[in-house]
Amino acid sequence: MSFCRHCGKEILDMAVICPACGCPARPQNNGRQAVDNSINAGLVVLSVLIPLFGFIYWPLKAKTQPKCAEACGIAALISFAAGLCILALAGI
Ligand SMILES: [Zn+2]
What we know:
Elements: E1 2-3, E2 10-11, H1 41-49, H2 51-61, H3 66-91
Antiparallel strand pairs: 1-2
Helix pairs in contact: 1-2, 1-3, 2-3
Zinc ion (ZN) binds near residues 6, 18, 20, 21 and 23.
């Protein structure tokens, strides 16, 4: 037997949620913040279209969604560099 971390009621060891309060019976991922390693293609495309979004999104989500944030940041950098090249070429 173990006890609910939220309401203190006795619950079964195999219980996933507490039957008394409905809270998760055990800490998920050892209590650490879940890390999402998926890449959201829509956000990457958005970063290419609006590099500023990627520059803001990168540090903002670096901890919770490192892969997606990095992809967005790199996409924004490439888009920004390409934009500068186009501007430079057009300027000449
Ligand atoms: Zn509970």
